[in-house]
Amino acid sequence: MKNIDSIPKATIERLPLYYRCLDKLLTFENIEVISSKELGGRLGIPSTQVRKDLSYYGEFGRRGVGYDVHDLKKSIGKILGVNKTWPAVLIGAGNLGRALVNYEGFEKMGLKITNVLDVDLDKIGNRIGPITVESMKDLDKVVEEGNINLGIITVPASAAQEVADKLVRAGIKAIWNFAPTRIVVPDEIVVRNEDLAVGIVSLIYHLSWQDKLDA
Amino acid sequence: MKNIDSIPKATIERLPLYYRCLDKLLTFENIEVISSKELGGRLGIPSTQVRKDLSYYGEFGRRGVGYDVHDLKKSIGKILGVNKTWPAVLIGAGNLGRALVNYEGFEKMGLKITNVLDVDLDKIGNRIGPITVESMKDLDKVVEEGNINLGIITVPASAAQEVADKLVRAGIKAIWNFAPTRIVVPDEIVVRNEDLAVGIVSLIYHLSWQDKLDA
Questions:
Q1: ipTM for the predicted complex
Q2: Which CATH class is domain B4-80?
Q3: Which residue, A88, A156, B100, B154, has fewest beta-carbon neighbours within 10 Å?
C-alpha cells in the first residue's frame, strides 16, 4: 500500500461511493460479482479510474472476472475505518441536530453520536432518542471521558467558529460542520464542511433542461 | 454545446462543486481570476478534467490567464438552472423536514420549499417558519396550483415508496429522497437519493489512519 499522503483526495472521496454502491448491490440486488466497468457505470466513474483508485490500496478482483462484492466491500470498509465504531459529540440540539441523532444510516458507516450538547437552557435536559442534552460547559469532560475524536456542528452560522474553537481545545481531531459558514481550525484538524444544497443542483439541472427541451 | 445526453453524469455532478467553489472564492476570498489548476486543486480534481468538463458547455477562460470567477460562476449557474427559482413541495414535517425548510443554503441554489405536507393530524396546521403544514390529501391541488415540479421526501423509510407514488401521480418530475431506502419510479422521473452518511466517511478515514500511524 502506498503512503497515505500520496493518495489523491479525489480517490479518498470516491471510496465511500464504492462502499455504498457495493452495500446496495448486496442488500438490494443480490449481486455477488461486479466488473470495474459495471461498478464505475453505476457511479459515473470510468473503469480505468475505478481500477486506479483501488490499486492504491492493493490488488483486488480477478482480471476478466471482476470483484467479489462481499470481499471488496469488506476491504474498502477496513480501509475507510467504518468496520469500527467511532463515537461523536454533536453540538446544537436544533432540528438538524435532532434529525442527525435519529438518522438511521450512520451506524453502517461506523458513526455513533453518543452526546449532544447545547448552550440553550431550554434544551439542556431534553431527550433526543436515547440521549439527554447536556450543557456546553461539560464539553471537555464529555470528550475526555468518552474518548471522543469527532465533533459535529449543527449550530447557527454565527456560533460555528466559537464552537469549533471549543471542540479543538477539548481535543477533537475531526469536525463535521453543517453550519453554512467556513470555520478556521489548526492544520492538524480535519474538517468537512457539509453543504446540503449540493444535492439539489443535479435535480434542478435536469428540470432546467426538460424546460428548455419542452420550450 | 453538445447534446445534453452525451455529457457524462460525473461531469454534471461536478458542476455544482465548481459552482460552490467559485461562490466561496467571491464571497470569502475576493479572488477574481483562477486557473483550472487552482480550481481543480481546491476540489481534488485534475486540471485536465476541469477543462474537459467545462468544454462540454462552451469556451470559458483565456489560455495562460484563467477564468474570470464572476463570469464562470454566472455561466455555470445558468447551465445548472440555479439562476431561476424552483418551487418544491416537502413531504414529512419531522425533524429533518423542519431542518430543511429552515436551511439557509438552498436559496442560492434556486430551491424554494413552498409547501410542507404530512399525514399526521398533530402536525397539520403547525407552522415551520413561514409555512403552515398542510394535509397530504391536498397534494394534487398544491402541486397544480403552485406549478411545482420538485418533491422532497423526508418521511420514514417505510412510507417513502407510497409518498413517491403519490408525488409521481400528482405530476412531480424530480424527487429528492432523504428516506434511507430505495424508491422505484418511472424512467422519466429524476430521483436523487441523498445519503447523509456519505459525508462522515472521509473524516472517519482520516481518524482511522491517524490511529494507525499513532499506534
A1: 0.81
A2: mainly alpha
A3: A156
